[in-house]
Amino acid sequence: FRGQVPFAGIVPPKGTWGGLWQVPAPKAEELGLEYSVYHSYWTGICEVGGGLWLALSGVGALPTPVQIPASLMFLLTLAVT
What we know:
mainly alpha
């Protein structure tokens, strides 16, 4: 996660949505992470994990139907958009 600084810069600050949508950052303070860095890390982990799962399912290396990781990647996209 060497390049997390550019991604942390595009995370909307906490409270951007005026109280309508407060995205939690559980244990971010305990881990010593800023709000934006915390969200850059968890989404990055999900993207790498989901992408690997999708690729491995697509080539038949995993017995999972490709629709499952594809759907989870779509849900991740909806969550962060």
